[in-house]
Design a protein that fits this description.
Four Helix Bundle (Hemerythrin (Met), subunit A), 492 residues, five-stranded mixed β-sheet, rod-shaped, two-stranded antiparallel ribbon, 3 domains, Heat Shock Protein 90
Length: 492
Amino acid sequence: MVRLSLFWRLVLGSLAIVLVVAGVNIYALTQLRQLTALNSELVSRHYPAIESSRRLIASMSSQLRNEKKYLIVRDAALLRDFDQDANDFQEKLSAVLAHEESEEGRRLLERVGREQHDYRAAVLEQAQGNAGPGAPVPAEYASRRDARIGRIMDVLDAYISLCNVRVGAVMTESRDRTAQAETVLQELLLVSILLTIMLAAVASYSILHPLGRLQQHIRMIGRGEFATSIMPDTVPQDLRELVETVNWMGRALKELDDLKAEFFSQISHELRAPLASLREGIQLLLDQVPGPLTAQQREALVIMQDSSQRLIQQISTMLDLSKMEAGMMDYRIAPADLKRLADGSVTKVRWLAESKRVPVVVDAPGSRVWVPMDAARIEQVLDNLLSNALKFSPQGATVRVRIGPDTAAGAICVAVSDEGPGIAPEDLPHIFNRFYQGRRQGTQKVAGSGIGLALAEKIVEAHRGRIWVDSQEGKGTTVQFVLPLIKQDAAA
């Protein structure tokens, strides 16, 4: 099966949308052309015919006035005016007749022409008589003339009515076509919108689906899942090289991951075992199993024991952090009393707090606070936060631990605050980076590995929680984290 490239998928999708829009536009233009033709028919035929008919009526009235004046005064100038009006009438009538296409209209106009010709002939015949000015007009002539003029006017009115009927018919047809075109255009517009959305969705899916698969595969690699790979033949040609590169990256990372796992198992044994043996040997010496100790010897052994214990804890912390980053840490989620864990962590640092004269205050509900969590890992978080708070607190300051529910978020919130020097604003974005201890710590530098907060962040996020720091220079620091009260699967 030939798979189109992204370029041709975009081209074909755009072309399909353009064809749909073009079809709607062609229909709209066709309807517009038909409406224009109807309007042109009104402007070029019917309205001029009505106007010309009215001018013919006015011409007949002018002829009648000139004829009556002539018969009274017998002035040759008035007869010439009558004859000129009669000629103009015939010319105008011929022009209207030339544009008239209907049989009924032509019949009416021809009748007008015959009646006007007879009327003109009768007037000229009457003018050839020997009657002088002021002579009375024969009653029979006047009667025939009035009848003939009435018939001409009636026929012209009938023609105007015929034209008005045709104008009404054209306007009705125009309105009907306009309404029909509007309805059809609305339907076509709706259909075109739906087709456009459908075509855009199909085009987008055909483009985004392979990208989504690639993105999902990259996320799986980021989570440490290297077992699967994407077949290059199942993606567009444009992405095949990228897919092959990602597959190669996954294989390379799997090899590195295997090496890392082997390194962790070896270093765990190589470092912890000798240190544990050293700690046990020091304990035997402190227990005076080989023999009695002097005060100076005991003091030196106590220092050695504390140093070895701190070194073991630092190595354990670094190994735990590396396992978390590698996605190899297992969490045992079960309901546990968070208040009891906090009290236990406070007890651990009690001697350090008393030596620095820094009281540790716990503000928590009176009853137990049950939270689904890995108790040992959350205890690590509390130990690190309290240790940092005491390290940076001056003598006489107070460290506070607050535990309270966040009902809106369905979580429990824990905050550890101190009254130390605070954290510089430029250091806050990097405070959870591994080994980061700030660009400036003032004149009093505090010893530490710089991985406590990084470890705390990994543990809290593995519980689907969130951790953050609020700090102002000179006013202290507050580290807060929230844990969901509903049990969720922990992230590796």
